[in-house]
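Much of our argument rests on the idea that a fold can be written as discrete symbols. The record that follows shows the chain in one-letter code together with its fold in token form.
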Amino acid sequence: MQNKPIIGKIIVQGEVECLSPLHIGNGKDERSDLDVLLDAQGNLFIPATSLVGVLRHATKNIAPQEDWKTFWGYTSEKQDEQEPGQQSSMRCSDLICQSQTLKPVIRDGIEIDNITGIVKKQRKYDYELVERGTRFKLNMEFSYKEADKEFVRRMAATIYTLLNDKQIRLGAKTNSGFGEVFLLENTAKIYEFEFSPATKNDVLYWLTRNFSAKQPIAVDTLGTPFKINTNLFSINASFWLKNSLIVRSYSADPDAPDATHIMSGKNWILPGTSLKGAIRARAERIANTIFDVSKTESKAKADGIMRELFGYVEEDQNKDNKKKARIRVKEAVLPQFVSEMQTRIKVDRFTGGTIESALFETMPLFGGKLDKIINLQIQVRDCQEHEAGLLLLVLKDLWTGDLAVGGEKNVGRGVFQGIQAIIEWNGKKICLEEDFGKMTTQQKETLQGYVNALNSYLQPPQEEAHA
């Protein structure tokens, strides 16, 4: 089919906006430990390779593999094959930032020891981010031939839908809430050009890039988008802050407090990295509490759940032994809490007096009002029942204030109270209210079934344990 003429093209243009911070690294550490990619003029951009790679992966199992392979293009793996390969039917330009004055921001990261609960030595780092709200220019082109016209048009509709429905995440740390982008519908335009003797003007318009001479078409006219399997285990929960919260951010200004709560743009945020780290530590503690200490395989299963859910990278030299996490925790934009300065001291435990030069200032956020709602979102791909049970137990600890998030937990910060949670999986939707007693018997049995699956997974049947 590679020798057949192209009979039409579809152009998709618009603006893509970052719903969460974006990090696409360049492998260098000139401005931070992990710098973002900039173009030759030092401006922000998203390489087309990043977007096309994510789209290719997202559409992998939605259509016949031969058609999918031809659409994305391929090269022959054997030199003696008659067909050398196929060029992709899609072409995408680099996504250039709409504002040439925007610069990346720097955010701090740490690694916490799950056993001691404190930061590991020499494990603080910083990295650059493209802030939420940044917009990039999108320009995609789809070419079709007579034999694949319908398939290419449906794929164009599918890709448009993926971008418009906020299902695409780019760059690093996507499981910590980064890289979520979407196509602004009010900026999106779709043009179709048909190359035939009856439509000579279309050829001229396309060659001269005179798209304004064509009337944009609706995405529905391209055909029915392929169905994307989005059967995620998801928890959408809302909480109110009992007392105060701080996820530290440090300023280079000598007159600024020693630590303030982290911001993204003009908004206070609860970073996905902080929340995911707290969830991981509590999930590991729960799994290690449940497993049968007399059975080696139970410990292996407990470790296996953590590796499967949260991913891993071996700390030895074999860096190829790694796996991406299946759990995704979104970054939460916080309501307009009150931030107040607090001055603290360190006390000498022997003398009872203040340690000299140990005065420090922090500016945590203070809640306590029921109208200040914090919304948290957790999703798991390809979830198993025992994994759902583990996350429900973590949710219970967050709900009851037993699991604190952020810094200065030893003085009561980072404690939440659950208000409402919506749990969706396998076509079922369960709504939890602050009073669990309002759940139906069937809902209670469903949730308890997931927890029972976790117990059964980590604790083999009694007769098996004594075999």
Notes: The radius of gyration is 26 Å. The mean pLDDT is 86. The first strand starts at residue 6 and ends at 18. The CA atoms of residues 345 and 357 lie 9 Å apart.
